[in-house]
Amino acid sequence: MSSVTVTRTATPWGRYALSLLSLLIVLVAWYILTDVTEEISSLYLPSPTNVWDTLVQVRSTILDHSLVTLKRVVLSFALGSLLGVAVGLIMSRYRIVFALLEPIIEALRPVPPIALIPFFILWFGIGDFGKLLLAGEGCFMVMVVSTIEAVRNVPRIYIQAAQSLGARNAYIYRTVVIPAIIPELIAGFRVALALAFALMVAAELMGAQQGLGFMIMVARRSLNTSTILLGIIIIGLQAALADQVLRRLTKRLTAWTERDR
């Protein structure tokens, strides 16, 4: 007789407890290595005490830098991702548009957006527009490819069933294709969001007057590693919070699916 193995998943509170436990282990190890035993020099890895002291010292400016970076990331992610989805849908529907844009996108997609930063500074200066365009371009490339592949993966039987009922192409796209690709686009949105943070901080490192990247750049000149690590921690917290918001939003949009929760 064959046996069926049932894998029990942890409860939400259990998962939260495990996540907190892993973070606690990292914090304790960090504290012991830097503050207690001093095995690692504060120059190479500032201790939690040093980072906290730095936070107290720069508390009057750190919030402004954090909000500026977060605002830039959200704008670039929203504009780049939505445009990428729209262009991907148009390319998937019209073969002429696909033939025109596909070579350009495939030629630009492998190019690291960070390599374009010097040109963006020359063309647009160190204002917000160039940074938004740079991070938005990265999000656009991720989402246009994700959308095209998601449309290709829509089961053909869905479209044939709608056509057999007399639905036109525009109606099929609006009521069948778009709802069907939303679950597949979630991974693309999450990748694009993380990429927006990375590109925005990189752009701020190269040229800016505000933002967490600018703060890290200034601290780097004087080897103020405590400020650098503080900026990295805040970026990580912002990215994690933004990802959680995105996951909750997409969970609502895909409540009708059978995705594993």
Labels describing this entry:
10 helices; 78% helix; 261 residues; 0% strand; globular; disordered N terminus; mainly alpha
Structure description:
- The protein has one domain: MetI-like fold (Orthogonal Bundle), CATH 1.10.3720.
- It has 261 residues and is mainly α.
- It is globular.
- The chain has helices at residues 12-36, 48-57, 59-93, 95-108, 117-124, 128-152, 156-164, 169-206, 212-221, 225-253.
Would you summarize the structure shown here?
With 261 residues, this protein is mostly helical. It has ten helices and no strands.
- What oligomeric state do the depicted chains represent? single chain
Please summarize the sheet with the most strands. Answer: none
What is the total number of structural domains?
Answer: 1
| Mean pLDDT figure | 85
Given the structure, what is the number of helices?
Answer: 10
Instruction: Report strand %.
Output: under 5%
Structural class: mainly alpha
Shape type: globular
Q: End-to-end distance, in Å?
A: 31 Å
Please render the helix and strand layout as text.
Blueprint: H1 12-36, H2 48-57, H3 59-93, H4 95-108, H5 117-124, H6 128-152, H7 156-164, H8 169-206, H9 212-221, H10 225-253
Helix pairs in contact: 2-10, 3-4, 3-6, 3-8, 3-9, 5-6, 6-8, 7-8, 8-9, 8-10, 9-10
